[in-house]
Design brief:
Belongs to the AB hydrolase superfamily. Bacterial non-heme haloperoxidase / perhydrolase family. GO terms for molecular function: arylesterase activity; chloride peroxidase activity. It comes from Methylorubrum extorquens (strain DSM 6343 / CIP 106787 / DM4) (Methylobacterium extorquens). The chain is of the alpha/beta class and 273 residues long. The chain has one domain: Rossmann fold. It has ten helices and eight strands. Strands 1-2-4-3-5-6-7-8 form an eight-stranded mixed beta sheet, sandwiched between helices. Helix 8 links the parallel strand 7 and strand 8. The chain is globular and about 45 Å long. The termini are far apart.
């Protein structure tokens, strides 16, 4: 299996398919590169070189004890772009993967980046603080951590229902599909799973948003129960000059699965523009 080594010698697994303009797909929590089950083949077949990698601690990448913070994640993304010498790349980040893009641009600049796409992303900030009173209370994230540490498979079996918007007529998902994402989730390090809740739940990306100086597409469902639209998709589009916001009416968090065809079409239209 192919791996890229980061500056602290952590090995990141990646899939590099096709040829053409490069697109890097950054997965969400607590999944891995295989979550792009529908988008990666479609984009590759449409003439793009697609690279999907497992974040440290997830999938087939090394499960280090530490390093589950956004500075380190951004450095991991840098290692992917540098090792493969990718130029004029489009970065596509789902959920916590959107934070990687924001921190990468702020920390390392956008010389290699041509476009960015935020899908159900956690940017610019989820946490409730004195200067962000509309945010999510810390008790929500602590409750998630408690559930994960108590019984991780059981936690996911409940969490996945809101992830997929179970019960929403606009978001049908089979029990088999939800079970498959559970298999991906269980491949992750339990330490990474917990630490990443603190990372995406507590990181403030508001100052990072100014680093988006490339055409940016923001895609979010207005029925997202996992990463609320007003805190994320709507706020991110307002914070990024010239960003285009695509609101999927009635859509939950798991857009790459529940709205896979529409997402692929929107990505291709943006890539070809």
């Amino acid at each position: 299996m192919p791996f890229i080594e980061t500056r602290d010698a952590t090995r990141l697994f990646y899939k590099d398919w096709g040829s053409g303009p490069p697109v890097v797909l950054i997965h969400g929590w607590p999944l891995d590169a295989d979550m792009w089950e529908y988008q990666q083949p479609a984009l590759t077949g449409a003439g793009f070189r697609t690279i999907a990698y497992d974040r440290r601690g997830f999938g087939r990448s090394d499960q280090s004890w530490s390093g589950y913070d956004y500075d380190t994640f951004a450095d991991g993304l840098k290692a992917v772009l540098d090792s493969l010498d990718l130029q004029d790349v489009t970065l596509v980040g789902f959920s916590m993967g959107g934070g990687e893009i924001a921190r990468y641009l702020a920390r390392h600049g956008g010389a290699r980046v041509a476009r960015a796409v935020l899908v159900s992303a956690v940017t610019p900030m989820l946490a409730k603080t004195p200067d962000h009173p509309e945010g999510v209370d810390a008790s929500v994230f602590e409750g998630m951590i408690d559930g994960i540490e108590r019984d991780r498979p059981h936690f996911w079996s409940n969490f996945v229902k809101s992830f997929f918007g179970a019960g929403l007529l606009s978001s049908p998902a089979s029990s088999e599909l939800m079970a498959w994402t559970g298999m991906l989730a269980m491949r992750a390090s339990p330490k990474a799973t917990v630490d990443c809740v603190r990372a995406f739940g507590g990181t403030d990306f508001r100052s990072d948003m100014a680093a988006f100086r490339v055409p940016t597409l923001v895609i979010h469902g207005d029925a997202d129960q996992t990463v609320p639209f007003d805190l994320s998709g709507k706020a991110a589009a307002q914070a990024i000059p010239g960003a285009r916001l695509e609101v999927y009416e009635g859509a939950p968090h798991a857009i790459p699965f529940t709205h896979k065809d529409r997402l692929t079409e929107d990505l291709l239209a943006f890539l070809r523009a």
